[in-house]
Amino acid sequence: MRGRNQWCKSARRKFAFGPDCLRQTRRRFAAKFAKENSHGTIDNEKIDIYAHEALKPFENSRGENPYSVQRDLQETMQHNVGIVRNESEMLAELDHLRTYWNALPVSA
Hints:
Order of helices and strands: HHHHH
Distance between the termini: 69 Å
Mean pLDDT: 77
Number of domains: 2
Radius of gyration: 28 Å
Number of strands: 0
Structural class: mainly alpha
Number of helices: 5
Helix content: 55-70%
């Protein structure tokens, strides 16, 4: 009795089925597609723009430290909006979040 891999490799015909045969077929088509199509281009300017935008909060010497903001948000969320919740605690947390939202600098 032949194993699935042996059948698929030896049959090489249209009606050879099985998960291993399907994997081999997918790999063959993926390799063919990769050879026939370009990989695309990388726009280094866009990468620099996105990297600068992502790092902008950490370059800000004015304002609050992002790590202290994260710590404060984590503490208040755990205290006010834990597993067991009630309306008054959630509203208090929502007001606390609004203070951070209103303090955010507006970027163009």
